[in-house]
Design a protein that fits this description.
Number of helices: 17
CATH class of the largest domain: Mainly Alpha
Number of strands: 2
Radius of gyration: 24 Å
Distance between the termini: 52 Å
Largest sheet: 2 strands, antiparallel
Structural class: mainly alpha
CATH superfamily of the largest domain: Na+/H+ antiporter like domain
């Protein structure tokens, strides 16, 4: 007789790998992001537009004696909350390098090369269109790939795409994120104040010492990381970079060895069974104590990096990214000036995110495979790589973030950039989805 499970019982019996949890979290982020983007666009083009705009430009001050930190809500979101988003990116990059797709160079070489091509070509296309104009500083905008949106589309395709293609896109997007972080840190910093920057460096050194001496508690890292964020903010380097740097210091090794964990847990489980009583089906006090001991052992075998990545994904997916989208995606569209789409900035972003990404991701992948530098992901085809290269053109979150940095205090240029980002991301996502669903086939054979 087939055993029936309640939904939660079935879920309890299914063990998800960290990669599966990562995909689920990114998919959730993608769907929530779409919803909040639509809300932001509706608010920005409704009778509530003025209230919507003025709210995010309301200032919030922190004052201690003569010291004052004054920023708008918009800045607190982009400089503060987004530091947690970048912290998660840092944890993901570290995980992929240590144990993920980027840990095996033979597997990683194709997404690494594709990601580099997917950053360089869009920037070149953008500069080619904007050379000599006021918008040339936005060359970093079309370099980005929004991993949440891109993965959400692949998940919607289900079994039409092989798992190896999903891992290819994830690895590519992680390298892309790393590139975006470097671009922000190096090229979108106007002035540098050395003393706060040195203090930020000292803060990072303290975090590394915490790691080396074996501190696994989260609180010390949080306190010093907060100081590092503040020093980075005062230095002129974008404060969110502190999130990525702090993530690199979080321990990725368990406090106790897996072998000891297995031996001790088996002993505790035997003790649990030995203390069971026939008369009462409920747990007795001894069993409760044993279960608590097992829980403590589980916490000790887990790493702070993995625990933080798991715990913070929900906060980032359901709070931080939606708030960012609500604050930044609201564009008051003037339908009488539809010509904005052919302004050099908008056109450069559209061409960069669509044609530049395809040239970079698909073109470099084709060359790498043809010259036997890398191998095609198992079970996938070049036609599917072509479709994925369009999904790489969904810039959105990171592109909007870079646009605000590139054209700071120039709202008209930011408006043109956001129009280009939304149009390009919408087209790239739809084209990539329909190509992978109706054109690319898993069993295609392509002669290279």
């Amino acid at each position: 007789m087939k055993k029936l499970y309640a939904p939660w019982e079935k879920a309890f019996n299914k063990v998800s790998t960290p990669f599966e949890h990562f995909l689920h979290a990114q998919t959730t982020t993608g769907f929530v992001l779409i919803f909040m983007t639509i809300i932001a666009l509706i608010l920005a083009n409704s009778p509530f537009a003025e209230v919507y705009t003025s709210f995010f430009y309301t200032k919030i001050d922190f004052v201690v004696g003569s010291w004052q930190l004054s920023q708008t809500i918009h800045h607190w979101i982009n400089d503060g909350l987004m530091a947690i988003f970048f912290f998660i990116i840092g944890l993901e990059i570290k995980r992929e390098i240590l144990v993920g797709e980027l840990s095996n160079i033979k597997v990683a070489i194709l997404p690494i090369l594709a990601a580099i091509g997917g950053m360089v070509f869009p920037a070149l296309v953008y500069v080619g269109i904007n050379a000599g104009s006021e918008g040339v500083n936005g060359w970093g905008i079309p370099m980005a790939t929004d991993i949440a949106f891109a993965i959400s589309i692949l998940v919607l395709l289900g079994k039409r795409v092989p798992t190896t293609l999903v891992t290819f896109l994830v690895a590519l997007a992680i390298v892309d994120d790393l590139g975006a972080v470097l671009v922000i840190a190096i090229f979108y910093t106007d002035t540098i104040n050395m003393l706060p920057l040195i203090l930020a460096g000292v803060s990072f050194l303290i975090l590394v010492i915490f790691n080396r001496v074996g501190i696994h508690m989260i609180l010390p890292y949080f306190i010093i990381g907060l100081f590092m964020w503040f020093f980075m903010l005062e230095s002129g380097v974008h404060a969110t970079i502190a999130g990525v740097i702090a993530a690199m210091s979080i321990p990725s090794k368990p406090k106790y060895s897996p072998s000891n964990f297995t031996k001790n847990t088996k002993k505790l489980l035997n003790d649990y069974d030995n203390h069971a009583t026939v008369e009462d089906k409920r747990m007795n006090e001894k069993q409760k104590a044993i279960l608590q001991n097992i829980k403590d052992k589980i916490d000790s075998i887990g790493t702070p990096a993995a625990r933080l990545e798991y715990d913070l994904h929900l906060l980032v997916a359901l709070v931080i990214i939606p708030i960012f989208a609500l604050a930044n995606a609201g564009i008051a569209i003037d339908f009488n000036s539809i010509g904005t789409i052919v302004e050099p900035i908008s056109l450069g972003i559209i061409a960069g995110l669509i044609f530049g990404k395809v040239l970079g991701i698909f073109g470099v992948s084709w060359l790498a495979i043809k010259f036997k530098i890398a191998q095609l992901p198992k079970g996938s085809t070049m036609s599917q790589i072509f479709g994925v290269s369009f999904l790489g053109g969904i810039g959105f979150t990171m592109s909007i973030f870079v646009a605000d940095l590139a054209f700071i205090n120039e709202p008209n240029l930011v408006y043109q950039a956001k129009i280009g980002i939304i149009v390009a991301s919408l087209f790239a996502g739809l084209f990539g989805f329909f190509w992978l669903k109706y054109v690319a086939k898993r069993e295609d054979t392509v002669v290279i």
